[in-house]
Each structure stands twice: as C-alpha cells, then as structure tokens.
Amino acid sequence: xxxxxxxxxxxxxxxxxxxxxxxxxxxxxxxxxxxxxxxxxxxxxxxxxxxxxxxxxxxxxxxxxxxxxxxxxxxxxxxxxxxxxxxxxxxxxxxxxxxxxxxxxxxxxxxxxxxxxxxxxxxxxxxxxxxxxxxxxxxxxxxxxxxxxxxxxxxxxxxxxxxxxxxxxxxxxxxxxxxxxxxxxxxxxxxxxxxxxxxxxxxxxxxxxxxxxxxxxxxxxxxxxxxxxxxxxxxxxxxxxxxxxxxxxxxxxxxxxxxxxxxxxxxxxxxxxxxxxxxxxxxxxxxxxxxxxxxxxxxxxxxxxxxxxxxxxxxxxxxxxxxxxxxxxxxxxxxxxxxxxxxxxxxxxxxxxxxxxxxxxxxxxxxxxxxxxxxxxxxxxxxxxxxxxxxxxxxxxxxxxxxxxxxxxxxxxxxxxxxxxxxxxxxxxxxxxxxxxxxxxxxxxxxxxxxxxxxxxxxxxxxxxxxxxxxxxxxxxxxxxxxxxxxxx
Length: 489
Known about the structure:
The chain is mainly alpha-helical. It contains 22 helices and two strands. It is 78% helix and 1% strand.
C-alpha cells in the first residue's frame, strides 16, 4: 500500500498517511467489536455484585447491540452530511464517556443506561470508519487490502473478548473490562484530529426520520417483549402488546420505505436472493454467537464453578480458530466464491451446537473443547461471505448501503440471539441456577443448531446461478427503475 496519499491533506496541511488512518479506524473497530463479546465473561460477576437477574444480564448485552443496530444506518448518512471525521470524533467521545460510566455504575440500571450510551458512540465509529477508509485508499488494490484488514479485525476482536475479559475480571474485577476502552478512545481521538482528513459525500442521503423511528420501535419492542416474557408471561398483555407493536412497526415501515426515493433501508434490495440470504445468514450466525456466549459463560461459571479466568481460557480454541479462519475465508471467497465458506460455517456451527444439546454438570472437558473448536471454525468462516454475498450483483452506487444493512443484520442477530435463547432458557430453569441451568440450556443449544442449519441451507440456495440471476434483475430495476416505482421523496 502507498504510504502517503498526496491527493488528501489533514487539517494541518500534512499529506495523509493511509496506513496510519487505517490503524486508527481499525483501533476503533477493535474496541467496538470487543465490547460486543467481552462483557459476556463478566456477567456472573456483575450478577453477584449488582444483584442482577438473568433478564437483567440479557439487558446488559442487548442495551448495547439493540442501540447499535438501530443507529448504524443513521450514523453512516450523518457522517456523509456533516463530515466523517467530525462524526467519528463524536463517536469516540461518546463511546469513551459511556465506557467510563459503565466502569463507575453503582446499579444495574445505571450500567444498562451507560451501555446504551456506549452503543450510540459505537454506531458512529464502524460505518463512518469504513467511509474514511474508502475515501483514503483511492487505488483499487490498496483499498481491497485495507478492507481485508478491516474484515479480519472484526472476527479477531469479537473472538478475543472472552479470554481477554476473563483475565481482566479475574485479576482486577469486572469494571476493568470498560477501563481499557478509555485510554484507547482518548488516543484515537487525538490521532484522528491530527492525521485523519475531513471528507463529506458530494450528495449526502436525506435523513429518513420516520424510517429511523420505526426501526427503533421495531427492535426495542421486540427485544423488550422477548427478554421480559419469562417474568411477565408469554401470553400476558405486556408481552403480546410488545409483539403487536413490533409487528405494527414492521407493517408500516415496509410500505413507507417503498415510497421514498432514498429510504433508510430499501425493501427492493430483498428481491435479490443473495442479498436477502446474506441478511438472514448474518442474523442466524450472530444469533448463534450471542446465544453461545451467553449460555456458555453461565454454564462454565455458575454450573461448573470455574473462575472468569479459567472460563476465558477455555474459550481460547474458539478465539484462535476464528482468528485463523477469518483471513482464510476471505481468500476462499476471492477464489471459489462464498458458497464453500458458508457451507463449512453452517456444518461446523450446527455440529458445535448439537454437541451441547445434552449438556450436564458432568459433560467431559474434551467434548466442550471440541465444540469450541467447531464454533470457532464456523464463525471464522462466516464474516467474509456475508458482506460479499450482500453486495453481490448490486450496483456500485448501492454497494455501500447493502454492506451497511449486512452490518446492521449482524447486530440484530446478536440481540435476538441473547433475547430469544436467554428467554427460552430462563423459562426452563427449575430450582437454583447452579443446578438447574445445564438441563434448561438444552433448548437454547437446539435453537443454535437450528441457526447453523439455516446458514447451511441459505448458503447453498443463495449462491447458485438462479440466485445470481435474481441479483442481476434487482440491480437492473434499481438502476433503471421508473419514476412510479421510486415514488415521491
């Protein structure tokens, strides 16, 4: 890659150094991705320290992922409009302040609110950083390599969360998992001001206020209904009301977005089988990840009595396989297409979850470790083909939006994985958590196995010639659609 880009200059007038810009952007991605998973290993310590229920622990995770999923699209368009560096810096400030607030939270409610603040900042980092990278690396080959580094950081950051979190919780305490974000955030903020150039889109997309509000209502009401259902009752007025509100928001969102020229999320994209498949694969894959981390943490620490450090170390095989397989998956996508890594991911994730469907307090260690290895293999193969399949056949002008929807789908999947699997398992627990959890978790592992099977089926169905033809037809409609189809702005 070129060491400087003479066409761009920083605010101080210095030539931009693309590799330094990439390092700053990847650092932000690393801490946001890390916070997706590092908190899981601290959940038992948080439960003991703050007196949290299982539903409260679910909210510690989902307050972050739901807000992140809701605001990713808005943050990307905001950066295009007001300036990408300015938006990126605002995100760093909010994420750092949110991390500080998490580390000082005196109650569970404060912790959940601080996690939401973290997510508001995090939503301004990932999509905006990608825009900064594509604007900085103007040569196609260098840009492709930079995006490859970016994709590898996604998998590595999420995989390293449990072992790193375990070491921190065991040595310093659960609050330390948030402390590490503060110096990293401050350093990135200073470096961003010095070395990242400001840029804006020549014609930014208009703000879709109604669409954004409907997305927030949809995700928030669905997640709240699922998490609180075990306590309120699955057929209670509260639960049914939340589900009805989510259904209403979806029913209004789709026709409203179809009438806009530049919608927040274009429903026409889903006419492309590869795009629709990639969205569902992202939801299923990250639902499996969210459920896996949530259940495994509670099993190792609450049922088996392992310390946070030992629980984190046991997940190292998963982290190692994810880190190794992520770049391998990218190369496979480039040479053989997305089908092979998607099939491998589906088979490995299904096998991993099936091995845990009979979990007991006496399950042998070799069986657990084999399951972790298979999960790391499957998850490591998953990320690269999701983005590739989402943008497959899309017009160049729409590829960025398609990739952003795929990223949003990842966060939605993780939120639903924790909400759905956590709610089903919570409803099944009988007696104390330490003794009742292993048997209650069986239904969660079966759901995870179903997610893996869905990835396998979708990977085959959405990467064939028929699917490619549907993507071509969709691209043609998006490019040459009539004024009547596009509707009024």
